[in-house]
Amino acid sequence: MYNKDNVFAKILRGEIPNKTVYSDDNVLAFYDVAPRAKVHVLVIPRGEYTDVFDFTQNAPVEVQTAFWQGVRNTVEKLGVRNNFRLVANTGHGAGQSVMHFHVHIMSDERFVEEF
Question: Which of 3, 36, 77, 97 could make an S-S bridge to 112, C-beta 3.0–4.6 Å?
Fold first, then answer.
């Protein structure tokens, strides 16, 4: 069940500031506050989805397509098209700390070893 008080929901409502990289009607991309690489950006859909399974099962196809286009636009804006890692943690055991579907775009030669 989606928690409307999670930190990403608060960011989407403008209750918590962020350093936006890219934004459109479907996604918000912003710098991670605890980066694990030189470039570490989170991309979140504007809808209420807990994880990748919830998103792919319940988001309309148009929303899913728009999300991945937003990811692409973010990568292009960051200038890391040929050198990035895309990560989507699912569940607490895998490191998902906010139960709002999101992907991490990370780029650097010095990734943290645990990734």
Answer: 36
Distance of alpha carbon 63 from the chain centroid? 14
Domain containing 69 — which CATH number? 3.30.428.10
Give the catalytic positions in this structure.
102
77 within a domain of the structure (yes/no): yes
Distances (CA, A) of 95 to 49, 76, 88, 89, 91: 17, 26, 9, 6, 7
Domain count, the chain: 1
**Model confidence, pTM:** 0.91
Q: Take residue 105 and report the two structure tokens written for it.
A: 């775009």
Boundaries of domain holding 93: 7-107
Asked if the structure places residue 81 within a domain, the reply is: yes
